Amino acid sequence: MYEIRKVSSKKELKRFIKIAWRIYKDIPQWVPPLIIEQIELLSKDKHPFHKHADVEYFIAYKNGEPVGRIAGIVNHIHNKLYNEKTGFFGFFESINDQNVANILFDSAKKFLKEKGMERMRGPMNFSTNEECGLLIKGFEFSPVVMMTYNPKYYIELYENYGLKKIKELYAWRITKEEVSPEKMRLMERIIRELNSDKRVKLRTVNMKDFWNEVERIKMIYNDAWSDNWGFVPFTDEEFYHLAKNLKQVVDPRLVFIVEFNGEPIGFSLALPDINKALKKINGRLFPLGIFKLLIEARKIKNIRVITMGVRKGYRLRGLDAYFYYYTIKKGIEYGYNEAEMSWILDDNVPMNRLLEHLGSKIYKKYGIYEINI
């Protein structure tokens, strides 16, 4: 017997979160999220995303047991920006049962239709500014920080329901051993040209001036990414909320800002892969998880290059190469052995070509899916 229920209490929200532990109990690649962070993200009175969105959570039950979950999401900023009526789904988890998947998708679709939406797209948790995409290649690898993971059978659950893949996202990987000295020397020519221009300056983030740096990066981000597929600008509150969380894990030596005549025009952000440490604490900071987390964090040897961009008026100057060159060079100097660059849109030809030139390889792919309502 199948049943679907809306989440309407804090107790049910915790049940919604804990369903993931049931789905992934025998999957060693999965990284349990911090429960306290999940509660904050999903609570409509705690996370700033909810101030410009309508969100409803659903839990599927089979014979009285919770076996799946989904969120229906109306992001009003997205629809205003693109003049669309696109609804989203996210936080999808399900046992390998098409009936369960169908009632979950149906519930999200019904909610979105009642809100006037014409199509359903996902997975988005909640938007392209957070985790998004269905893993479709690379199941043998664990997810890195702020990237998704799911069982392979989800692909069939999606496609059997009628969801069609509309976009692919790539994750590239390079190890210290794969960095080609010859290609790094070729990049050094570009670097020398940039360094010879006294108007251009590369520096690392100043943590003593953190919140002013956040303002500079926010300005760059909302300009540099504005033409990207699926882009939605951060609200000020969302950006500050994210910055506060990232401040706890960032390695400031690997956050680069480029200035032109003293004006910030581009930045790149690489994070140590805190997921390596999160695996050890099973979603709980207390009573002992925080100590395990601190111990494991010191052992992290891989990074994720999470975002990189240059303001529109300053592109085609080799600044992308600038960022990657110094991230690789300094990352190796600081003891990191491996980097993931993610995610990159499948049709971002210049960036994909540059990453291939550096010797990195696509080792994971993610899909964004859609269905008309």
Summarize the topology.
Elements: E1 2-6, H1 10-23, H2 35-42, E2 53-62, E3 65-75, H3 76-82, E4 86-94, H4 98-114, E5 119-122, E6 124-125, E7 131-132, E8 134-137, H5 154-161, E9 164-175, H6 181-196, E10 200-204, H7 210-224, H8 236-246, E11 255-260, E12 263-272, H9 275-278, H10 289-297, E13 302-310, H11 319-333, E14 338-345, H12 349-357, E15 361-372
Parallel strand pairs: 4-5, 13-14
Antiparallel strand pairs: 1-2, 2-3, 3-4, 5-15, 6-7, 8-15, 9-14, 9-15, 10-11, 11-12, 12-13
Helix pairs in contact: 1-2, 4-5, 6-11
Distance between the termini: 26 Å
Share of helix, binned: 25-40%
Low-confidence stretches: none
Query: What fraction of residues sit in β-strands?
Result: 25-35%
List the helices and strands in order: EHHEEHEHEEEEHEHEHHEEHHEHEHE
Shape summary = globular
- The SS-based structural class is alpha+beta
Task: Work out the number of β strands.
Answer: 15
Q: What is the makeup of the main sheet? A: 13 strands, mixed
**Radius of gyration, in angstroms, nearest whole number:** 21 Å
Mean pLDDT: 93
Alpha plus pi helix count? 12
Characterization of this structure:
36% of the residues lie in helices and 29% in strands. With 373 residues, the protein is an alpha+beta fold. Strands 1, 2, 3, 4, 5, 8, 9, 10, 11, 12, 13, 14 and 15 form a 13-stranded mixed sheet that branches. Helix 4 (98-114) packs across helix 5 (154-161) and helix 6 crosses helix 11 (319-333).
